[in-house]
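We emphasize that the prediction below concerns an isolated chain of 114 residues; any contacts that depend on oligomerization or on bound cofactors are therefore not represented. The input was used exactly as deposited, without trimming of termini.
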Amino acid sequence: QVQLVESGGGLVQPGGSLRLSCAASGFTFSSYAMSWYRQATGQERRLVAAITGAADITNYADSVKGRFTISRDNAKNTVYLQMNSLKPEDTAVYYCHVRYTVYWGQGTRVTVSS
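Result of the prediction step, given as a token string:
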């Protein structure tokens, strides 16, 4: 069965960095686009970044462009989200998602606070 396991969340000060990882199993990872979403308290879940299976195309929400980078390692079945210059408004639970499917990870919490 499909499994997505996120890691790398935590508490960071404004201006800091974190790298999230999502280890995938149970499907042909390189054949699927992957994405990261986030959900802040009281808000809907929103797309943060996405990447094609071949990693040749990426796209980002306007709010994170220039600060976040999505990447993947198909040999390791893992997708990453490098987050730099973090802001308090980046605080949310971050979810890994297999694009155009019903498969989601359990989420990892990111808190940006001094």
